[in-house]
């Protein structure tokens, strides 16, 4: 595929540095997994709390909505690091990842995760608990599925 070859040639200096320097490959992979630990960890904990709030307990609901509002900035910050390190991982082996169905399925799920995050924030603002609980379940499933596809990418791409 000419586009893939052109892109692969364009990022050759980076892919050669990445494949010859353990320091660089460890640093980028750590950035990817560290951001997953922070962003995914906080998101999953918040989703669990959303599902544990007793329905109709106005006090608990109000407290949780305040907590939730404070988590998005950290999760979005961590996702920015995940995406930037992900682009560097992609550029380390364009010929493999650009034609990988696993890679593009993972990117589709990452977009779904971002979309679900927007729906979650909208449900929060309207204190629509049904929609909030649904988006928490979807978020939990997406974080796990994306992580699974990330590991499949390393092991089977
Ligand atoms: C929520 C978002 C994401 C999560 C949870 C995630 C998770 C992971 C995990 C767990 C791995 C395996 C790492 C290893 O075992 O060394 C991985 C690998 C990878 N990820 Fe992600 N990732 C995310 C987003 C992205 C994005 C947005 C990109 C690209 C723009 C990306 C590109 C890659 C690539 C190319 C690899 C394979 C690296 C290799 O073979 O060494 N990821 N990801």
Task: Describe the fold and architecture.
- Helix content is 89%, strand content 0%.
- The chain starts with a helix and ends with a helix.
- It is an all-alpha fold.
- The protein is elongated, with a radius of gyration of 18 Å.
- The mean pLDDT is 95.
- Bound molecules: protoporphyrin IX containing FE.
- The site of protoporphyrin IX containing FE has 20 residues, from α3, α4, α6 and α7.
- Protoporphyrin IX containing FE (HEM) binds next to α3, α4, α6 and α7.
Major sheet size, sense and barrel closure: none
Q: What's the tally of helices?
A: 7
Strand coverage percent: under 5%
Q: Mean pLDDT, rounded to whole units?
A: 95
Unreliable stretches (pLDDT < 50, length at least 5) are none
Distance between the termini: 18 Å
How many strand units? 0
Count of domains = 1
| Small-molecule binders | protoporphyrin IX containing FE
Approximate shape: elongated
Order of SSEs: HHHHHHH
Radius of gyration: 18 Å
What portion of residues is helical? over 70%
